[in-house]
Amino acid sequence: MEQALKSLISWWDVSGVDVPDIPVQSKRKPRPKIPLSNSTAESPRQSQATPVPEKPAPPAALELLKKVATLDDLKKVIQDFDAGEISDHARQAVFARGNPEADIMVIGEIPTRDEDIQGKPFVGKSGQFIDKVFGSIGLDQDTLYMTHVVNWCPPGGRNPSPDEIAKCLPFIQKHIELIKPKIIVLVGGISFSALTGRTGMMKNRGQWTSISIAGTEIPALPIYDPDILMRQPDLKKDSWMDMLSLREEIETVNTSS
Questions:
Q1: What's the confidence (pLDDT) of residue 224?
Q2: Three-state DSSP class for 97?
Q3: How many structural domains comprise the chain?
Q4: Residue 215: which of 173, 161, 257, 170 has the closest Cα?
């Protein structure tokens, strides 16, 4: 490298180019080698790092549900369950409200901010609205049992991810098994998709389907979420038709029982 620089300066001088004096660096001294040792001592950078213990994976819901025999058992398991981000950011798990002996089980999507605060599903404005919807055919807290397919309010009220829904699905399936409803009302597209494996709430709304739980087929009616009905009042007529269909199914169930 030094010889090449000298040749280049000489060529510039011959060509008439004014060249300032350029100091030529001496040969770089070889970098001293770091002595290797057979000891297990870490390098300075490594020694500054504090090892972080791995967080053990939370027990799977199915494993925890093996010992669940009552609603109180289920509530305790859900309250203690580590569902990741949604349970980390929620104030509490939202379990249920209404009559556990009711024939009709209402399953919504996710808790709202009001529900996260109160620990009960379908409260606040959306709860008041859905109560009026069911009240139009004479149903109330004595004749309904209400819960959600996801028990925690996601951060910012966002929709739950497929993984988060999958974590919660065993809980709602066990919940249904314990309640043994004769009719299920699926409120909103998330609960409909989670429990039927199908999509397309708009085209399936008001169309009766069935859900198989512990070998029992239960008739289920998908209806709009109250938040959608409040934002789009034109859909209320569809909601009324759904309630008429529900009332007809109730009469059929009562007649056959």
A1: 96
A2: strand
A3: 1
A4: 173
